[in-house]
Design brief:
This protein starts with a helix and ends with a strand. It has one domain: Jelly Rolls. A hairpin with a 3-residue loop joins strand 2 and strand 3. The longest helix has 35 residues. The strands form four sheets. The protein has a seven-stranded antiparallel β-sheet with strand order 1-19-16-21-14-13-12, with no helix packed on it. A seven-stranded antiparallel β-sheet has the order 2-3-4-10-5-8-11, with no helix packed on it. It has two helices and 21 strands. It is of the alpha+beta class.
């Protein structure tokens, strides 16, 4: 009888130990998943870590998963004058959106080239050869957003809706509004998004762009100039030129000019 009781006790301890290990592994997996989620909030340019090499420097903003993307990464690269062009390559299953912050960029995609400046955008489909080069006499700085959808990639959808786009800011039309103005860049499906919309907004005076709201799309606000205030959920933020706000899907948010001096910012959203 004693041996039987000892065996039962040992069996009970083994089961408890296995359950504890399973719980710990589950918790570790949960923590890892939460840690890898792209966090909503403010990413300040002045606080980004800078990594420098011989002819360029880089700044990492965010990386993780989001409601619509299984992979999302945003960084900024600065090519010094005379820097070697980025190595020509094609992304197998990654789409990119590149925004020029300063300088002159030569974009080469599938053998076609174009020179664009600050405020211009390069929307890149997967599986297309491309490279970027500083062709100016000052620093070339640009933001790179790389992403992969949770849904299957649809190359044909991307092609019929314009494919890769090189958008020169100088070719766009500024539309005046009561508060300032808007410049539309694109509003279309892509290989990775059912829809991706981008525009810039100018607010001439202190006050909101619109009434705070929420929507299914995840949205990014990138400040070009001026000072802004941002509500995201139950938190308040202040940002200036170079700063980025990340607003996850369905989060209540609103942006406003923080002063009587005009502000200008990119707003782009997708689902």
């Amino acid at each position: 009888m004693m041996k039987k009781n000892i065996c039962n006790a040992l069996l009970f301890l083994l089961v408890c130990h296995a359950f504890a290990q399973s719980s710990d592994q589950k918790n570790e997996k949960t923590i890892k998943t939460n840690k890898n989620a792209a966090m909503e909030g403010l990413y300040k340019w002045s606080e980004l870590k800078v990594s420098t090499s011989e002819d360029r420097e880089s700044r990492k903003l965010l990386e993780g998963v989001s409601p619509h993307f299984e992979y999302l990464e945003i960084h900024a690269t600065t090519q010094f004058p005379g820097a070697k062009p980025s190595t020509a390559h094609a992304n197998e299953d990654i789409e990119e959106c590149i925004i020029v912050k300063e300088g002159q960029m030569k974009v080469i995609v599938e053998g076609e080239s174009k020179i664009i400046g600050a405020g211009s955008v390069f929307s890149l489909m997967p599986q297309q050869m491309h490279s970027l080069e500083n062709v100016g006499t000052t620093n070339l700085t640009y933001y790179v957003m790389r992403y992969k959808s949770k849904k299957p990639m649809n190359l044909e959808r991307g092609k019929v809706n314009g494919g890769s786009l090189i958008i020169d800011k100088n070719d766009l039309v500024f539309k005046k509004t009561e508060r300032g103005g808007i410049t539309d860049y694109f509003n279309r499906p892509t290989a990775m998004c059912e829809n991706f919309e981008m525009h810039t907004t100018v607010l001439n005076k202190k006050g909101p762009s619109n009434t705070p709201h929420s929507h299914i799309e995840t949205e990014i606000f990138l400040v070009i100039s001026g000072d802004v205030e941002m509500t995201i959920g139950d938190k308040e933020y202040k940002g200036s030129a170079g700063d980025l706000f990340f607003v996850s899907s369905e989060l209540f948010h609103g942006i406003r000019n923080a002063s009587e001096t005009p502000c200008n910012y990119f707003a782009f959203k997708w689902h």
